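Reposting from the mailing list since nobody answered there.

I have sequence plus structure tokens for a pair of proteins and want to know whether others read the tokens the same way I do. The first protein:
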Amino acid sequence: MTARQALRAALALTGAVALTGTGCSADVPHRGHGSAAPGASAAASGAVPSPGAPGIGDPLMPLDGNGGYTVRRYTLDLDWRAPGTPFPAGTTISATATQALSRFDLDFAGNALHRVTVDGAPAAAVREGDELVVTPARPIPRGGTFTVRVTYTADPTQRRQRGDAIREYGWVPTPDGTLVCAQPDGAKMVFPVNDHPSLRAPVTFRITTPPGLSAVANGRLVDRVRRPGGRVRWTYDSEEPIAAQLIQMAIGKFTFAESAGPHGLPVRDVVPDGLVNDTEADRSLTPRHLAWLEERLGPYPFRRYGVLVGDTDLPVALETQSLSVVPKDDLLGDRVDAERNLVHELTHHWTGDSVAIRRWSDLWLSEGHARFYERLYSAEHGGVSMEDAMRAAYEQHDQWRHDDGAPAEPTEPTLFKVMRYDGSALVLYALREKVGDDTFNRIERAWVTRYRGRAAGTRDFVALASEVAGEDLTPFLRPWLYGPDTPPMPGHPDWQVDPVED
């Protein structure tokens, strides 16, 4: 076992580096180490420089994220050429050291590395698996701000596979370009990053396209400049801090369909030219979906929304922040099914995007809420009744626990199995049956309000639910979230769980 493998094992066992809220530290004073007197060293700050941890200690993915610093902004430069063709790329990372750093890691995989600088000076860089270990020319003091520039050749054929609902992630090809599906930890195939769902920072995207192609990314288009040879550079600002798994960059022959949602919210759909008319009926329902969710969860938490129609065989839609990607087949079939998918990804903008998960085992809070409100909306608009859907989930719950782990006890391979979807929506349904509609609705509104723009986990949810309900709900929720057996469903003594099959 190498020293790094030993450290990984230790992180997985102990979570040695604390998981902390978001990765955005806009309130940290900008005290650059370059402002110190000439010849000053990190040791002068009173701390002996040491390496930042190669991960933040999430037990399921211990090397995701990095210790020793917080990211203040990413700036991505992509010089796109053609489908399946590697192209020049660069990433600039503005960060603040949270310890005196002798070196630090970035999550980075799948691209040819060219050069790394820290504050303009060449830095040593070594690749160890999916870790890029950077040693600056001189240590960085605690509290010091620094800028990392990484230039590389991006490879848009880089993808990885999973055995759950995600199946394939990373760069996703389209007939004339690409889109990105980074969930769960595929952003590192696109750019060097601090890749964990609890870590967020604003992103500037600068994407140059050949003549006839458009680019889109999360947030707002701030600039479009013609370059030599008819190429165009598109600049987008994420407007809000964003987790790496929620980034979106797409290139293709697009139509931009602009409309407005409740309260004048800008809605921008991005649609391959040949799919505009065939998807319009389903896409036009977004304002209705927004209004329905705002009645239950409060104001939409971002500055704009829209749907990116994926001209791909992508198996799942994805809640990329402010611009959900939805495969074309999801919008070319049954209306009820299309609305389920659209409401699911939109719900994530309250739970999963705005309220981020603190660790991967909290994924049930993100996917369970999205599935709950998807089912609830569908039941009110021509789909299966909520009670029938939840009874079917209840019958299979012991089997799912056996196969995939309890809702809050996934393993890395079972993260996106059915337990995190219908199985976790069932936990919320049980809570509603326990406390009643009014109290449940107050819990939900409090959840997305109190933790807006922050990361939160299972303990936070149980504590908040108990506070709002005026009773300790831990004895009720713990059996639902952990362990091998499904508890009785309140109000439904006749519901039975099917026997487990090995």
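The second protein, same order (residues first, tokens after):
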Amino acid sequence: MGLDFLADGGADFEHAISVTGFGKFHYMLLAICGLIYMDTAIGVTIISFVLPAAQCDLQMDSTSKGWLTASPMLGMVIGSYIWGCLADTKGRKIVLIATLLMDGVVGIISSFVGNFWAFLFFRFLNGFAVTGAMGICFPYLGEFQPTKYREKILCWMEMFWTVGVIVLPLIAWLIVPLDFTYKTDSFYFKSWNLFVAICALPSLMLSLWLFAFPESPKFLLECGETEKALEVFKWIYAKNTGNDPSTYPVKSLQEKSNSKDTNTRALKLLKHKDLKVLCSEVWDLTKQLCRPPYLRNTVLACAIQFGLTSSYYTLMVWFPELFTRFEEFEIDHPGESTSVCIVSSLSGNGTIIDPYGCNTIIAPSVYLHTVYIGLACIPGSIIIPIFIHKVGAKVFLFASLVISGAVTVGFYYVVSSDQNLILSCVFEALTSLGISLVYCVIVDMFPTNLRVMAAALSLTMGRLGALVGNLLFGYLIDLACVVPVVIFAVFLFICGILSTQLPKTGKDTLD
């Protein structure tokens, strides 16, 4: 590849990353970012198996379950923007490591808690941490990619989410039914506690592995740290080609005329003066997002995330609960047809005798149904990366949102657990695909100095939607389940319409 640089003798990002080749490093980076995304899938949906398993020990009725499923979402609402601001000022890698470490440590601590409110608080902290990892892993991965491969590589992340959705019920199926209890006068540790602890371990392992990877060269260039960025390019080149880093053909990089003040990366968060400077920097970046030319894209991203995420996370977290209720109904009323709303109302009446579900046993079919839901995502996870360049992310996003809205309406008309399972599979496959596509689009919609913050702001709105959705569902599932069904369907249809207004992505070099 010729050194056809600009007159100043420095290579731009696109040229510099292209000459590193595409090989071992990029596959390893996809592996760790994908595993982080898979880990966030586990972290977000783990509550769906804790609900039926821990309801007796934590004395949870439907309203309490609604609060417990909402607590991680509240943590995500607060954490998304904080982590996004730090990632856009201090760096992608260090903040990603911090979020994973916090998620792992807090997850393990929460497994030893036997009080409902204390457990709810620690799950809030888990949500606070895991949202940072979720919001940063896509931009971090995308900022190492040449334009030719970027959109395709980002779309492969959906496969890792799918694996997470499949692995979680398998782990739960293996551990939760175990007849395992360690108990003293003031403490107990049961199989569901062990399940929570095991699910926290991947975050710790991934945080340690991430130390072996460099900071985003695109971010370093944005900060004006061209020498550090050049060293990263040399390192990537050596990993991909096996050649000595000194043989990397690019010898200098273009300086950014409007690069950020590099001092922001050296600021100490515990120093009042430094924290004030950092907050001022964050406020300036936030104002940029809320002004032209970025305002339109910011509003679109936030609105789509709110509607899509509220529908997805609420229903995904409650699917195992609904499967359990269907299972109980069909055992008590063999051969009779029913619906989600009928099952919910009957289960609600039954709670007078057993308000905390202490006699509830999670049937193997509940785990198996959740595995089926994950398996249903595999075709889409393979099709999207292959055809994304030919069809475009917007087309796939629009189709996934509108069809999933129609599927949500269909939940009101199911009359058996089998029909409920089929619709649940289609819903999960389409909405999880939609969420990944939104992340892919956001990477292209905003410049480097605003990219993670924009993703974080949209994530904040999404988690706010999920928080509201979980609280609504917890209150209404036993009373008027048609209301949340209609609300979530309308959200998805509106998001589908809004997605048509998104800009085209995947063709240009990252700004």
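Reply #1 (J.P.):
I read it the same way you do. Confidence is low (pLDDT under 50) at residues 1-7, 347-352.
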